[in-house]
Amino acid sequence: MSGIYIHIPFCKQACHYCDFHFSTSMKKKDEMITALCDEIRLRKSEIDPNENIETIYFGGGTPTVLSIEELTRIIEVIYKNYSVIQNPEITVEANPDDLTEEKIKLLSSSDVNRLSIGIQSFFQEDLQLMNRAHNANEAKECLAMASRYFENISIDLIYGIPNMSIDQWKQNIQVAMDFKVPHISCYALTVEPRTALKKLIQNGKIEPVSDDLAQEHFEILVDTLENRGFVHYELSNFGKPGYFSKNNTAYWKGKNYLGIGPSAHSFNGKQRSWNINNNIKYIKALQQQQIPREVEDLSKTDTYNEYIMTGLRTIWGVSLQKIEHEFGKKHKEYLMKQAQKHIDKHLLFIDDDTLLITKKGKFLSDGIASDLFLLNLG
Questions:
Q1: Less CB within 10 Å around the terminal CB: N or C of the chain?
Q2: How far is 319 from 351, CA to CA, in rounded Å?
Q3: CA proximity to 337, closest of 352, 323, 325
Q4: pLDDT tens track for 8-23
């Protein structure tokens, strides 16, 4: 099974923390949609004809700046050129300010069967700090409307926001629970280079982000959602049974995926590629039937390190049997040697020949994974 990701590189306005590729100008929207459809056709040979497409995911940017007709046009091109399973998971990322009841209703009558809504916070001061286009009322109103038409809804929340009290964070989680959303993705506010947030902190207009506050918020999040029946199946993702994101799960399990659009990444098990992150250059290249991308051949070490990183973030962990079978006994011995100190500190444990992260270790999982990486064992 494979998945297709489509990057829609348009947003109404720039969020202060975002370093994803997008444009706030819609001037090239029609040309972009044509280019996306051309890339989908041109890359048909990259997916084995016997391999089925299980997930289609529209990310960005903000995919809901497109009309239903435009989204449907892209989906139809995928169906015409690839073998798609019956009832695939088709997700569209959306922002509350784009989701009128009419638009939600139209989405629900299309092939789209999952909404991922960028709420981030239900508090107005947080939304203003992040320069989100919606307000707190719109966040709640759009969830109420979406719940009437969609069963499979995910929302994004951000924790570790400066000056967000413990009580406010608990209220954010509670509002999500009140709406009975079956999937929640939560991310720590991070300060990326070349973002407005970094400049605002440097200029003293916003307090620096606190790792201690983020960790406290994270621990509250994990305890609360697990007590409410959610499975913490990946570091940033919580789902009720039956509502895990199939798109996310495929990514974390190392399955193949095709990334369409400017800045989109692709993975086929042996190579990783990424498209140019410039809308005009992307469109011009596709007009000449060329795919503007770079390709990296993954070494044995790259593949090993990626498996460690992705595996430790999930409930599926790192299979020691797979390490020995795919990489060799030397790699397994190295992994166990590196892991031992983390096992001693109760940050990692072994169950059924699988290396897993403990609840205590979850917030530190990326750092722990990097300590298990290798530079070169041959």
A1: C
A2: 10
A3: 323
A4: 998 777 665 565 666 6
